């Protein structure tokens, strides 16, 4: 099938390259630009488009944030077949995005951290796979600091005639190079603006996922099997990089304290790769803890989140899932990124972080001692109780807020000082032993 060059105006075939040409001025557009040039991008003839490739090659949470843009595209062009080109980890999110008709997992060489072996055959196979897709155009979604050009070159080599992205760079890999949005823009909004500037109307800007019915059924069956009948807290202490991970032992103490103060079951969730890291944390959680690490797939995990009274998590995919479900969440939010780029926008939330001069660092590992997450478990507890009180529906009136006041009073009596050592666990009290059994050890959130 020969590439179609009639989807955008002023298209003329190039020698040795079937991509459309939009004119010299527009191909160099990297700033706000004249309105007339932007208007040319809105002349996309949707009636002639049958197959669209959407490229987003980052983590699971990044794919969740493409949802509003995909929803807008599908609403505007319901006849179009949408394929998502995603990383293997991110591809799992397609199960929660009903606007995606197909997903192509891809380990992109240009986003590799040195783990992929040199294999030109792998890259040729990617190009061949995309060529077989016979796509009319490609939307290349990126973060504020990523270049769309490597993906655009691959799409050009696969014969995709129209390639759309936002870029600060020059070059002809993109046939529509839209002005680069502000760096501080929320990633979901960045994705939306890309399609919006092509004339796609956006009715709803909210994050959204759809839970398959089998996921609901599996989640309810799992809760029933473990005797979870009341409210519960979902705790995800893991993240894809060390720089975004709050100290796991402190996190465990805070999670257990929250569960005990608010009378919640404590569901520990994570991927199969997190089982080893979870092993040392589980004994700290007491009888309320329920180990589900590696036990659920993504849709079932999302269904568990949907029923949670509160989610306690690092800045990771669970944050975006909870936001899409409007579930209250308490986030230990590292200084790796700007709040405005990734924070929840729908769910009630608290973001916990120390202000530091190095924020945002955009690092995978912290070289200076993780000062941005130097949080005492008591601080996490107080913030969680405050959020529970604010969103209380099934909690005893005033109970959570009174407990939050008690914790804050303890902080004041101790001069509000930051804990630099992990809290100790004091011996069991008689009351706790009667309630939970002889093995119970109540928490001390401050060192003796």
UniProtKB/TrEMBL annotation:
GO-annotated cellular components: cytosol
InterPro entries cross-referenced by the UniProt entry: Glyco_trans_9, LPS_LOS_Heptosyltrfase
GO MF: ADP-heptose-lipopolysaccharide heptosyltransferase activity
Annotated stretches, region: Disordered: 423-448
GO biological process, one term: lipopolysaccharide core region biosynthetic process
Pfam family, one: Glyco_transf_9
Top-level taxon of origin: Bacteria
Name this protein carries in UniProt: Glycosyltransferase family 9 protein
Source organism of the structure: Nannocystis pusilla
Source species taxonomy: Bacteria, Pseudomonadati, Myxococcota, Polyangia, Nannocystales
